[in-house]
Design goal:
The protein has 144 residues and is an alpha+beta fold. 25% of the residues lie in helices and 17% in strands. It is built from four helices and five strands; from the N terminus they run βααββββαα. The chain has helices at residues 11-20, 30-36, 87-97, 136-143, and strands spanning 2-5, 40-45, 50-58, 63-65, 77-78. Strands 1, 2, 3, 4 and 5 form a five-stranded antiparallel β-sheet that branches. Strand 2 (40-45) and strand 3 form a beta hairpin. The model has no long low-confidence stretch (mean pLDDT 84).
């Protein structure tokens, strides 16, 4: 487990990890993070087997993590379910690096020993959506 600064991250390996992840979200793509948070670093496990993007800002005497605008969920992204337990090691590592912070984790990140503030997040499954149940204007918007 290593912490890499933004310029040390291999963009192609990063994006491959995110796209192949069980819990893939577009918010964690390399390009997206560059746009919404010019300063960010990452916790990388192995050869990009699992990654955790960490956007941060400098305050007067310390660094603070934050949730970038237009970014709903970050957290640990992995393609092997056994990596889910690594979240229990990543959070304490971040607490050593950053004095304060706030990051909304994705829906697959959970660990029984960590205390998180839970928020409701509604995830819509569009594959089960019946087109007949939509209004005409909704159908037109989907076609657009």
């Amino acid at each position: 487990m290593t912490i890499l600064k933004h310029h040390q991250i291999d963009a192609s390996k990063w994006n491959r990890c995110i796209k192949n992840a069980i819990n893939a979200k577009p918010y964690a793509l390399y390009e997206w993070l560059n746009i919404v948070s010019p300063k960010w670093q990452a916790v990388v496990l192995g050869d990009y087997d699992a990654v955790f993007p960490v956007p941060y800002k400098y305050y007067i005497f310390f660094k603070k993590t934050y949730q970038p605008p237009f970014t709903q969920q970050l957290g640990l992204f992995f393609n092997d379910p056994s990596h889910n337990d690594e979240i229990g090691k990543v959070i304490p590592l971040l607490k050593q690096q950053f004095r304060k912070g706030y990051i909304q984790l994705n829906d697959q990140n959970f660990h029984h020993t960590l205390k998180f503030t839970s928020r409701k997040n509604y995830i819509l499954n569009y594959s089960d959506l019946q087109e007949e149940s939509l209004s005409k204007s909704h159908r037109r918007n989907i076609k657009k």
